[in-house]
Specification:
Elements (H helix, E strand, L loop, with lengths): L2 H7 L8 H4 L2 H7 L8 E9 L2 E8 L2 E9 L2 E8 L3 E9 L2 E8 L4 E8 H21 L1
Antiparallel strand pairs: 1-2, 2-3, 3-4, 5-6, 6-7
Length: about 130
């Protein structure tokens, strides 16, 4: 089952971002998925003053940034590497800060508060499920 078919059947996460799945950046990262890996959530936000697509799967977190017209930079983080996720809210605008066990930190800025809350919840849920599966 491909990601679009899977997501259409997934009601618990209320996935409604099909337009992001059709983007070139998503197609570039999808080829790195493991056979039992699927998308849980996708957001677009700013990391270090550059727009990024942030993709959460049941196994990893990906950041995809478009640096030039024809290429993207893809970084991946295992769910087991996540130490903490912090939500900062200022009215309708929020940010998510990811803190990793190796000391890496990145902050996703300029998210709608509801989107940031949902994405943070999904990260926590996937982290718990991943740890339980070990």
């Amino acid at each position: 089952m491909n990601n679009k078919e899977y997501l259409s059947k997934l009601e618990i996460y209320n996935f409604d971002k099909y337009q992001l799945i059709d983007k070139k950046e998503f197609n570039e990262v999808e080829k790195y998925f493991l056979s039992d890996e699927y998308v849980i959530d996708i957001i677009v936000g700013e990391i270090n003053a550059f727009a990024h697509m942030i993709l959460l799967t049941n196994k990893r977190l990906f950041t995809i940034s478009k640096f030039i017209q024809t290429a993207s930079q893809i970084k991946q983080y295992g769910l087991e590497q996540i130490e903490d996720v912090k939500l900062g809210v200022l009215g309708d605008i929020a940010d998510l800060t990811m803190i990793f066990k190796n000391g890496n930190i990145f902050k996703i800025d300029y998210l709608h508060t509801e989107v940031a809350q949902k994405f943070g919840y999904n990260i926590s849920k996937m982290y718990d499920e991943f740890i339980k599966s070990l």
